[in-house]
Amino acid sequence: MTADPADDTRTRILRAALDLFAEHGYQRTSLRQIGERLRLTKTAILYHFPTKENLLAALVEPLVADLEALLDSAQTQPTELARWTVLEGWVDIMLAHRRPLGMLFHDIALIGRGDTYHRLIVIAMRANDLIAGPDAGRRERVRAVQAVSACSDPIVFFTDVSDEVLRADMLDGVRRLLAPLPADAAAPLPTDAAAAPPPDAAAGPHADTAARSHADTAAGARADLAAGLRVTTTVPAPARETPTHVSARDAAPGRANPASQGAASAAAHRRRRPGRPPALGREQVEAARRMHAAGTHSVDAIAAALGVSRATVYRHLTAS
Predict the structure, then answer these.
(1) What DSSP assignment string belongs to the chain?
(2) Is 172 found in the same domain as 224?
C-alpha cells in the first residue's frame, strides 16, 4: 500500500518545522523558510497548516494524546495503583517525546487558549487528582503538583543524560518526595490545617526502592539550603567598640587613630548593602543541582535560599 501523498507532505512539513525550530527557535522561523527547505511554496504549507500556531499545535498533539490515553487507563484503577500508573507512565511519555518537548518547552504557551491549551489544562488537573487521591488535603494536593513537575522538568534540563538513567533518577526522586516524613522531620502544620489527614504512603506497587528513608533526602536538602544561606548571608561581625579617650601618643602625626579607624570601619559596614551575588560558588552550584535533581525544591525556592535570581539558577542548572 502506498502512502497518501497529502499525509506524506504533512509529515515532511512537521519534520522540517521541528528541525528549523531547533536551529533558529519558533519565533525566528517563518513558514516561508519551512517551504524553502522542502521546495514547497508558502501556499502549499498554508494548505496543511493555516497558521504557524496550527503547526506548533500539531507538533504537540502526539504528546497530548498519549497523556490523555494514560489518564484514561488509570482512571478506573484503585488509588495507589492509579497514582503510580500515572507517575511512571508520565515519565515514559516525556522521555518518548523528549526532543520536541525540550525544543518546544518555551513555545507551548504560544498555542493560545484554543483546544490544545484547554486539553493541557485538563490533563494537568486530572493527573493532580489521581496522584493526590480522593479526599486529599492541601498538603497531598501540593505534593501531587510537585510530583508531576518532578516527572517532567528534568527532561528539559538534563539533555545529556540517557533515557534509562534519567528515568531511574526521576522515579527515585518522586518516590522520595511522596514518602511519608518521619515524625522528627515533619514541619509543623499551620493552625488552619492541623486537622488535615497525614499523607498517604507512597510506596506504590512498582516502588522497589520506596523503603529508602525519606529522612536522608530531607536532611540533605536542609543541609544544602543551610550551606547556601551560610555563603550568601554571612556578614562581617560588628567592629569592637573603640575607646573614646585618645592619648597624645595615638594622636601623633603619622600614627593611625584607633577611634577614627573604628568609626570608618563601622561607616563602611553601614554603607555596604547585601545584594544578590552575580554568580554562585562551586559549593552553591552543587547544592542547587542536588536540590533540583531531588525534586524537593522549586527553582524559585533555590534562588531565594541562595540569594540569587532565577536566571542565575537556571543558567547553572542548564550548564550541568
Answers:
(1) -PPPHHHHHHHHHHHHHHHHHHHH-STT--HHHHHHHHT--HHHHHHH-SSHHHHHHHHHHHHHHHHHHHHHHHTTS-HHHHHHHHHHHHHHHHHHTHHHHHHHTTTGGGG-SSHHHHHHHHHHHHHHHHHH-TT--HHHHHHHHHHHHHTTHHHHH-TTS-HHHHHHHHHHHHHHHHSPPPTTTPPPPPGGGTTPPPPPP---TT-TTTTS-HHHHHHHHHHHHHHHHHHHH--PPPPPPPPS---TTTTSTTS--HHHHHHHHHHHHHH------SS--HHHHHHHHHHHHHTSS-HHHHHHHHTS-HHHHHHHHHH-
(2) no
pLDDT tens for the chain, residues 1 to 320: 444 555 589 999 999 998 998 888 888 899 999 999 999 999 999 999 998 888 888 998 999 999 999 999 999 999 999 999 999 999 999 999 988 777 666 666 666 657 888 898 899 999 999 999 999 999 999 999 999 999 999 988 898 999 999 999 999 999 999 988 665 444 554 544 444 444 444 444 444 443 344 444 444 444 444 444 443 333 333 444 444 444 444 444 444 454 445 544 444 444 444 444 456 777 777 777 777 776 667 777 777 777 777 777 777 777 65
**Could you tell me the CATH number of the domain that includes residue 27?**
1.10.10.60
Domain of 298 in residue numbering reads as 213-235+275-320
pTM of the model: 0.56
